[in-house]
Here is the input.
Amino acid sequence: MALYLIGDVQGCDAALGRLLDELAFSPSRDRLVLLGDLVNRGPRSLAVLRRVQALGDAATCLLGNHDLHLLAVSLGVRPPHRSDTLADILAAPDRDALLDGLRQRPLAWRERGVLMVHAGVLPQWTAAQTLALAGEVEAALRGPDWGQFMRQMYGNHPDAWDDSLQGAARLRVIVNALTRLRFCTPDGRMEFATKEGGAAAAPPGHLPWFDVPGRRTAGEVVAFGHWSTLGWLDRPDLISLDTGCVWGGCLSAVRLGTDGRQRELIQVRCPQAQQPGGRA
Here is the structure.
């Protein structure tokens, strides 16, 4: 059985279809893990959701910030952004089934020795803790009061982890780390204003989350997306897979070996592009 990780699709269904063809992907034989941001900005978000849902248990899809935004817009918790491309989903006859399926998705996953998230992991968290904290948010999303959770989810504070955090503040920190994090201070205080540039764009006093000294997941392989201006990064302890498909780059997949250390990169060019600006 082959296991493939795929970076941010963001509504680029044509590229996703071409990539699956390039992989000769078979749902009866292989597995996918998509690292979040299935939807938005690209032209065919509805087709992406339907394609992924049709793959059933052969595809695990992590939740990214754009996926959560779709859920919030569907509830009226957040207004649509001018650059959103979600209207086809919200008007679809199978809207409710697709949205319900989306909120059943995990925020973190571990397979073949690789910890997978959409954006990042705070330096204080171990891999086991990351999965457990993700589970707290997943329970809130899947529960009967998920709308109340969504109404309290947004905000940049608290901007650092504390084991004593409770309620909405605790869940907000977890969501922000797993779906929005790029830079933080050495003690794990998150920064969300900087969206352009790669690792060298870190604001004064900040580092890319994966370069914080003493990070407790440093002994793990961590795979993530979210950071298109960082692009493809292949280190013994890291796999970065958002290669800016929706911005005219590539859609990227990595075939993992049995232990996550053996990797093969497969890419296809994205047939459509948007002008850079306001990336998130």
User: Anything to note?
Assistant: Confidence is low (pLDDT under 50) at residues 273-280. The chain is about 30% helix and 20% strand.
